[in-house]
Design brief:
The chain is an alpha+beta fold. The chain has 5 helices and 8 strands.
Length: about 160
């Protein structure tokens, strides 16, 4: 596995990975209805393209060309996305992506990293030194999604 920068030609693969990751979540954690609101079957590719181009996105690549995970970093230290393809979870990919971004943030002298993590991602970030700031609710259609704001101060 190696990590490279996102390119606009990666859009469909990244959105597809996101959809597989969201719809692969155990329905006891996020129900199927919540998953459908979080990741509609017909994604707005123009919105995705704009959002991905507005931040740095790093891709985990396996088998020389297969995108198996991605993470994003904004200039203020915000991690917007951290997703791994369900077929490649529990193989250290999220950890590798996170460590890459943390090292980059330290190199750039960012004072902190912060994230809004899903119920599934919260323990991952807490294991990497993030502390809980708040629980958040996000009404979407007829569902209310829950996530968590966490932050980690960096030693620069």
């Amino acid at each position: 596995m190696f990590i490279r920068n996102y390119q606009t030609a990666d859009l469909d693969a990244v959105v597809g990975l996101f959809q597989r990751a969201v719809h692969g979540v155990d329905p006891q954690i996020y129900t199927r209805a919540e998953q459908a609101q979080w990741s509609p079957k017909q994604p707005d590719l123009a919105k995705w393209a704009q959002r991905l181009s507005s931040q740095e996105v790093f891709l985990a690549i396996a088998n020389l060309q297969e995108i198996v995970g991605f993470i994003s970093l904004e200039p203020d230290g915000h991690i917007d996305y951290t997703y791994v393809d369900p077929e490649f979870q529990r193989q250290g990919i999220a950890k590798s992506l996170y460590c890459f971004v943390e090292a980059l943030a330290i190199e750039r002298a960012y004072p902190r990293l912060y994230v809004e993590a899903s119920k599934l991602a919260r323990p991952f970030f807490e294991q990497h030194g993030f502390r809980l700031l708040s629980s958040n609710t996000h009404p979407r259609g007829d569902q209310v999604l829950i996530n968590y704001s966490l932050e980690k101060f960096l030693s620069v």
